Fold this sequence. Notes:
This protein is an alpha/beta fold and about 400 residues long. It has helices at about 15-25, 40-50, 80-90, 115-125, 150-155, 180-190, 220-230, 250-255, 270-280, 300-315, 320-325, 350-365, 390-409, and strands spanning about 5-10, 30-35, 55-60, 70-75, 110, 135-140, 160-165, 195-200, 205-210, 215, 240-245, 260-265, 285, 290-295, 330-340, 370-375, 380-385.
Amino acid sequence: SNTIIIAKDTRHSGDLLLTALASGMMSMGVDVIDLGVLPTPAVAYLTKKHNYMAGVVISASHNPFEYNGIKFFNNEGFKLRDEIEEQIEEIILGEKIVEREVIKGDIGKLYTDDGLGREYEEYLLDLMDFDLTGIKIALDCGNGALYEIAPRVFKELNADVVAINTTPDGKNINDNSGSTNPGLIQELVLETGAAFGFSFDGDADRIIAVDDEGEIINGDSILAICASHLKKNGKLKNNGVVGTVMTNIGLDKYLDSIDAKIIKTAVGDRYVLEEMINNGYSIGGEQSGHIIFLDNNTTGDGLATALQLLEIALEEKKRSSELNTLMIHYPQILVNAVVQNELKYKYMEYDEIKNAVDAVEEKFDGNGRVVIRTSGTEPLVRVMIEGPDEELINKEANELAILIENVLG
């Protein structure tokens, strides 16, 4: 196809970036369809379904309105590989000249299309075969991309919907609302007696879910709930779930108890996705609520995850708070060690650091672990320790961070 689709979230600068991008694409002879406001997963889904040349989302996700960014999907609905993104950056920064001239009738055209957004809603409704009559659902749409779609989808399933932050003005996206302010949806659930609460980030590729007791169902817990249900129905592909090195050890232990396994990748949804594609797993995700069901879509989808949780609760005839106790969360402590930037990647070259890490792991004897990660942007090494005893892991993490600062600081 010679067409690219572009959508945006609700932030003020979306029009500016969308029209600039569309102009550039049309000047290269490409047709553009402006989808208006749509969530990220809708663009991934539509790009793949119609085999468009690419899909673009203009959004800065959970950040305040004055930020904005651009996400690209290839014709298969997957985010672009690092090296392709780097090539695009080279062209933008003027280090590479594009040798292509398009004139006369070959210049692309701009179309607007409202029907495509509706296709995404139909796809979600087709995935779910249930009726929510008499079930109360609380939503915090964060004045983001799902502000119309989420309440509408739940109403079409006959739920009793209580929705807040559904009046975007370009500046109030994520403003004391949405996924970065979970207190709001927790409060709303308790006030209204909802069966579930769902809060979305600006572009709706992840979710904060809340059970009927106002407790957060984090990404690890969602993976436990979904894996358990898939396993019961013989649908857990390759008997595995993909998480990251930050996934709580409680999930490892829970999956072990139902005879399934966890596969851990580096932190980042692209690494989770890569592992899922390469080794045939159908479910994976991160603590942040970015969950990927590869059988349904090629990227995280907050609304699809919400519907999935509801379907499981209905089929298992369990309250959301019951589902939320499947896995036990071990305390995790994260301490930053400030180091010299040029030494930050060399922490494992020092025996005294390596030995200290080994000593802590030995103490836990399989009931805890140490994860050391380097910050990509700051001169920091992050020490994460998890284990059953909060006081102990706090002490160990701080001691380890001080040691790393002394050696590399």
